[in-house]
Specification:
By secondary structure, this protein is mainly alpha-helical. 66% of the residues lie in helices and 4% in strands. Helix 5 packs antiparallel against helix 6 and helix 8 packs antiparallel against helix 9.
């Protein structure tokens, strides 16, 4: 099984730490099957989709189109396609995981949790089921439950960087900052490309008053997305706390260029400008 896509929930942004917790879809190839030569599209034709070939080929076609529908932000269509697989084989744990992911994307949280639970009962070692349920619990602010599921996902797959990062998010919400820093650091060690994990660790360092480390992590996050207004504003706050007002002003200004209504950047920019004007008048 391979992770084919991180699927953030609607409105995911660095500005809201919980929204960075990403769901995943998993791809399963039918026995002896392979992916379609052409990229599948999310069609609105009536069910069932007519395909030629074996049951495995039919199943693969449904999975491929369901993935295309999630990519096209049509999760309900994906749910309908995956339901066909489940109808033909009620023991298909992977279909339940993917349908749960699509349901969560559509905001059908209770149904998503039910699908993840069925997947776990059918295949207790299916790491993605534990991870996706933990991520859903995180968005529901059921942090203890989320941590328990992420911990099981990590037990099953010790190199699962996303599970560490999302467990870190849950630990932050419970005030377990040392545990969160440990989780973020392991996640980044496992996958240095987890940009939002750098952001979350930098944001936590800012909260803890470790401003130099906050700047380092936020700069790592900004290397991939240099115009992210929240990361710019957070780094500006760290620069300001260190007395580096020129750097802070530059970051606040860049944040406002990207998002003129970002309150933290507006307040920070005004605060430094007021201080500078006061200093000029005194001199």
């Amino acid at each position: 099984m391979a992770i084919i896509r991180r699927m953030p929930t609607r409105g995911a942004a660095w500005g809201a730490a919980l929204a960075a917790a990403a769901l995943i879809l998993i791809a399963v190839l039918g026995a002896g099957g392979s992916r379609a030569e052409t990229e599948p599209v999310c069609a609105d034709n009536s069910l069932p989709i007519e395909t030629k070939g074996s049951d495995a080929a039919q199943r693969q076609a449904l999975f491929d189109q369901a993935k295309a529908c999630v990519n096209a932000d049509k999760p309900q269509r994906a749910v309908a396609l995956l339901s066909q697989i489940i109808k033909s084989d009620p023991t298909d744990a992977t279909a339940y995981v993917n349908r749960g992911s699509a349901l969560a994307h559509a905001g059908e949280i209770s149904l998503a949790l039910s699908d993840f639970g069925v997947a776990i009962s059918l295949e207790p070692d299916l790491v993605e089921a534990w991870y996706n349920r933990g991520t859903t619990f995180t968005h529901m602010r059921r942090f203890e439950s989320a941590i328990a599921d992420f911990t099981e996902a990590i037990r099953l797959s010790p190199d699962f960087a996303l599970a560490y990062c999302n467990r870190g998010l849950a630990n932050v919400q419970l005030g377990r900052y040392d545990d969160a820093l440990a989780d973020y650091s392991v996640a980044i060690g496992r996958d240095a490309k987890l940009t939002f994990c750098y952001f979350n660790r930098g944001n936590l360092y800012l909260t803890l008053g470790d401003y130099r480390k906050a700047i380092d992590d936020l700069s790592q996050a900004l290397a991939e997305r240099p115009d992210n207004p929240v990361a710019l504003s957070r780094r500006a706050q760290a620069y300001e706390a260190l007395g580096q007002k020129s750097h802070a002003l530059d970051d606040f200004r860049a944040a406002l260029d990207a998002e003129p209504n970002l309150q933290s950047a507006k307040e920070g920019f005004a605060r430094i400008m007021t201080e500078q004007q006061r200093s000029h008048r005194q001199n």
